[in-house]
Amino acid sequence: MLIRQDRGFEHAIPSEITPSHVYSRRREFLHQLAAAGMLATSASAWSQTTPRPGKLSALNSSVSTLSGAQATETVTPYKNASTYNNFYEFGTDKSDPAQNAHSLKTRPWTVEIEGLVKKPGKFSVEDLLKLSPMEERIYRMRCVEGWSMVIPWVGYSLSELIKRVEPLGSAKYVEFVTLADPKTMPYVGSRVLNWPYVEGLRMDEAMHPLTLLSFGMYGEVLPNQNGAPLRLTVPWKYGFKSGKSIVKIRFTENQPATAWNKAAAHEYGFYSNVNPNVDHPRWSQASERRIGDGGLLAKKIKTLMFNGYEAQVGQLYAGMDLTKNF
Ligand code: MTE
Prior knowledge:
Blueprint: H1 20-35, H2 41-49, H3 60-67, H4 78-81, H5 96-100, E1 110-115, E2 121-124, H6 125-130, E3 135-142, E4 147-157, H7 158-165, E5 173-178, E6 198-202, H8 203-207, E7 212-217, E8 220-221, E9 231-233, E10 246-252, H9 259-263, E11 287-290, E12 301-302, H10 310-313
Parallel strand pairs: 1-10, 4-11
Antiparallel strand pairs: 1-2, 3-4, 4-7, 5-6, 5-10, 7-8, 7-9, 11-12
């Protein structure tokens, strides 16, 4: 991400029909959630009626208030979303995470909550799966490198968890620390980044209903390369704000030092809202290429302010100079 401008488009993968074993794993996951009473109606609507890849309009009734005007966009094929990844703990090429992340052990898994909260403690992933009903949310995701995807995530708003742990009034930010295990993650220890990979949000961003704690995608458990067993999905920010394989959530008074900001502060700011008017110092952010839509020949499409979620999140930044707070 730090290194090359057009890396994102070199290995674009052609669209592919979903294989049947993927459908059956998806059904199984949804049945498990439904049996435990953890499934909200939107996800079951997807499982019953929507072939993949499908038009977003099929789900519009359940997701339109949160997803923005996306009815004409096609969901990115599962194959692309699960083989074209950034997960630097497993390598720096887009194909590395899918090849290497099988070594990640996602059970047992604990997320520690600490810092400025009334109820700090440890949650197992099983506790977290049960904490709130799951929903399916189709989000447009835009990478800082200039490509994007449209992915149906499964999870619930992070605010559900935050409310349970009762942050103190002094908590202004939330820091997300992700796993850094050199035994199972071959690039931890390399000098690519300062490990662990850390991200952060302002408290109101973390509490925004769009900010999703994701456990699945395409109706299935998250593949390791997409951040199993749980990750963040913050659709109005560049993809790197969405930390994968989270192990610690810390409530702080001061703005957390985040991995990419530490690596190159002039290139990756704390906010990292998708903003076509603020160029990356080495390339324009005015347009993007949708992965799966024709590979290298795909036409670039115009990037939207806040990735198209301006109506929902624009007010969080009222009065801020977004060229300074990039
Ligand atoms: N989380 C961790 N722990 N390590 C990473 O390298 N990469 C980020 C983000 N979360 C990253 C991470 C970047 S740069 C992007 S674009 C998204 O994950 C990619 O998510 P995806 O592979 O599911 O599309």
